[in-house]
Amino acid sequence: MTSSFNVHDAAGYEQLMGRWSQRLAPLFIEFSGLADGEKIVDVGCGTGSLTFALARTADLAEIAAIDYSPVFVAEASRRNTDPRIKIQQADACALPFEDGTFDRALALLVLHFVPDTDKAVAEMRRVVRPGGIVAAAVWDHLGGMPGMRMMVDTVAALGEGGRQLRARYCFQPMMQPGEMKRTFVEQGLVDVSETQLMIRMDYQNFDDYWAPIAAGEGPLGKYVMALGAAERARTDAAMRDAYEAGRPDGPRSFANVAWACRGIVP
């Protein structure tokens, strides 16, 4: 089962999203819970934002981290110096673990990029012991990410391709209020709760904001890279104008909200 996330370069991903997932990881861990001695699986580990935060937070027995992208697996493996952490390439919809192996299955900023989210949640439940926890978090693209909405609204104003991109971006799976909670309940988890987690994304200047997109990272980067030269120049200029908003280029800060959900395996 493929992922719909577009990644070329680990460093580009870090500038686009990895640095922000590092900020979100501690809030997600606090919501999900954690205890010494546990065995955890990090589903969709990316470059390791959650994986390495877990290792720092508790004296865990084992952290199994998987991702579909070879780029992410290679980068997380390169960074890893902790013998408790085992990283491998795998599919969130076909986890390579026996039933009931882990105390918790966690997925940070992953489920909205998995085509079959029901199957992914079912797999997370399968590999967690009875009484263990399944938890996930995804960005609220429609209403909780003004900095990213500024991007997609700008390209939507420029043409039909941008409007189609916005429709896909704003309504990816698991992003609507209560959607993850319903999925967790439908997959048999109990005592399911949902909340909102907020961080801020702070940019030094327009280049800090736009460079990873301009280099082709993420869904919007994929769209931008497919534009012709004239349309690309028009898009770059429109994005700069949106970012600067009539003021000189410089720092900007945006609040960003993620939906988080957790449930217990009966």
Automatic annotation (TrEMBL):
The keyword Oxidoreductase does not apply. One of its GO terms (molecular function) is S-adenosylmethionine-dependent methyltransferase activity. InterPro entries: Methyltransf_11, SAM-dependent_MTases_sf. It comes from the Bacteria. Keywords: Methyltransferase, Plasmid, Transferase. The keyword Methyltransferase applies. Pfam families: Methyltransf_11 (PF08241). One of its GO terms (biological process) is methylation. This is Class I SAM-dependent methyltransferase. It comes from Sinorhizobium mexicanum.
